[in-house]
Structure formats: structure tokens, C-alpha cells
């Protein structure tokens, strides 16, 4: 075949190919208008196959890929378009938008400025330059916020940046990490999971998934994600540190639990204290550690320290029922019933179980009892004192506070001693009567049963106790010497 015929054949082929390519392009345009982007993509691809040197075909396919959220592929097509034709304004514009969507605001800005070189009045390029500048500014603010641990600021900045850079995994991961640091684990998990659905090998997203599990005290599962993140990105320092902390925290906590079960409370206290220094950011695990240390403190009779630890636990986790229960029991042990009632009310409002109701009612009863006169304290005896111990205590206190014994004291002292003498009589009247004592111990008011306790005559109780037959013939003055000597030698017997 002659060279002339070969040239003619080639020109004919190019002409046919060009017409066919244009036909594919027109069909692609029709599908694009109908928002059938998948079919549009297919026809633009056919056009490119027929005529691979046409910049507009790559530009059109780039636009379609952007609509399909396939921004990296769209970036490649738009870059190919401007390589074929550096004056292709739409190509530069689409390349810039792809860069911006992927979070590369600097590259995007260069593309938009190239558009403005070609067409200085292009309003779209002018607006996109502003968008790119805003993304850069939000990036800087987020970096400063992260360094200051102002995670709310970082989330705000990333939300604003993602309005323009919607396909930027880097921004999404940073937002997710900060959500995790703020304790907003479901939101953080959702963002990380969305990334992993598109890119299962994303080490940053795997790290965030692990971080959420770690902060929710699911340490074994968290370690699995950290290890997977390190497989995908061996130099991922955050994943490496988190994995090390997770393993150390689990080991130290388990050692503390074992020491506690073995009854080695001092060792358990130290182990829990050491665990609390590993990672201050792990709120849930640290709340459990504080509560555990509070439990140990109560075993070691360090009640105030136990209350402080339980308070730290509920500050970290306001929903931590076990910490409220432990603190409430410590308050009960200290007879600080108002505080105990508040904690038990909080627990019962959260979990309305029979057990919690019983604990609340018991605390309320003890609170009610604490607001009465404590007759056991008045006599100076324990609550399980025997009948003989109550009588001996009354004898001692009645003689100690009898008004005649203080007749030479000042009026103020006489008044105070008379009041104490009367209280001793009240206490003995109640505690020496089995029925009254039972009702008193049960928290019932005795006023309804005995009338006004304040109206009874303590002298009559005293005379009845010391004088035998109705108390006749007892003289405090005559027996004062006996009190000061013989009573001290415990020579009074019943």
C-alpha cells in the first residue's frame, strides 16, 4: 500500500473515531443531565477510549466522578485534562475543587489562581479561592487547639473545614479523635467506621476505633485495633503509645484486683494508685480505679480517703452507680446520713431496684434517727449495751449531773447540769423499757406513746432508782461521800 493511501486511511479512521467519540460524549452529556452519573461515566470512558488526547473528555469524566464522590479518580482525570491543554479553564477549576475536597487547600489555591490568570473575572474561581483560604485558616486553628487540648475547638474547626473538604479523611479522623477525647464515643466511632468502609486499610481510622474502645474500658478489643493500625502504618506513634498504655493499664488493674481478692489491701491500694498514673485521659477506666481504691480505703478504715476517691470516680463518670453506692456506705459508716441519703436517692432514680430502695429507706431511717436525741450517747453506752450496762451507766451519769451536786456552781453551770440530768433520765426511761427501746431503735417517735417526754420529772426517776420503795429517804448530801469514793471503786451493785 502506498504511503498516500496509508495517510488517507489514517485520516479517515481518525475522522470516524472523532465522530464516534463525539457521539459517546453527547450520550454521556444526556445521562449527566438526567443525573445518571454511572451511565454518563461509561460513555465518557468510551469517548476517551476512541480519542484519548481530547482534554474535554477527561474534564467531563472528572465532573461525573466528582458527582459520584470518587474525588481521587476525578483528580487524576482533571490533571490529565490540563496536561493535554494547559489553557483548559474547566480542567484547572475541577482539579482545584478535587484538591479542596480532599483537603489539599494549598494545591487547590494554585489551581484557582491559574483559572484567574486565564479569566480574571471568573466569579467561581474567586469564591473557591476564599473557600481554600478558609480551610487553611481552620487547619491552623485546629492545630493550635489540639496542642492546647481544646478538643471542642478542633471539632468546630474540622466541621467548618469539611464543608469545603468533604472527602478529606485526614480532617475526619482528626475530628473523630477529638470526639473520642471528649467522650463522645458513638459519634467518633461513626466517623471512623465511615472512613473504614471506603478505606479498610486506613491506619488513622483503625486507631480511632481502638481509642474509643480503650476509653470505654474494652481494652482487649482496643488492643486488637491498635495492632491492626500498626500493621497498616508501622510508624503510627499514637497507636503504638495507646497500645502500650492499654496493655500496662490492664496488667496493673488486674494485679490490683488479685491483691484485693487475696486480702492484701495495702498492696492493692498501691497498685491501683500506680494504674491511675498511666493515662489520665482514660476516664472510664480511671473512674473504676478510683472506685476500686475507695473500696480498699474503706477496708483499711481510711473512710475520708475512700469518700474522696469515690467522689473523683463520679466526677469522671456521673453514671457510675457502684461509686455512688460505695460512697454512700462510707457516709453511713461516718454517720453522715444526709450525704448518704443524697447518694442513695441518685442511685434509686437511676436504677429503681428493690435493693436500692431498701438501701435508701434504711439511710432515710438512720437520718431520721440521727435528728433525735441519741440516748445511747447520753448514757455513754453502745447500741448493743445490756440491761446491766444501761443501769450502771445511768447510775454514773445521774450522780454526775444531779443538781444538788452543783448547787455551789454558777447559774449557767447549774442550768447546763440540770439539762444533762434531765436527758439522762429520759435516756434511762426509754432504754430500760424493752418496748420503748425497741421502738426507739426502729426509728419510731416515742412522743405518741409516752406523751411529751419533756414534761416528766427526772427527780422522780432518780428517787425511784436510788430510794427503793418509791425513792423515799434518799439524800444526795448523805450519799455524796459514797459517790465520790465507793462509786469510783464500783461498790454499787444491782
Automatic annotation (TrEMBL):
SMART domains per the UniProt record, alphabetical: DnaJ, TPR
Pfam families with a match to the protein in the record: DnaJ, TPR_2, TPR_8
Placement of TPR repeats on the sequence: 21-54, 89-122, 203-236, 249-282, 287-320, 321-354
Record SUPFAM superfamilies: Chaperone J-domain, TPR-like
Record's keyword terms, sorted: Repeat, Signal, TPR repeat
Keyword Signal among record annotations: yes
CDD domains listed in its UniProt record: DnaJ
Record has Protein transport as a keyword: no
Signal sequence annotation: 1-21
GO cellular component: cytoskeleton; nucleus
Residue span(s) of domain J: 374-444
Alphabetized Gene3D superfamilies for the sequence: DnaJ domain, Tetratricopeptide repeat domain
PANTHER family per the UniProt record, alphabetical: DNAJ HOMOLOG SUBFAMILY C MEMBER 7 (PTHR45188:SF2), DNAJ PROTEIN P58IPK HOMOLOG (PTHR45188)
Name assigned to this protein: DnaJ (Hsp40) homolog, subfamily C, member 7
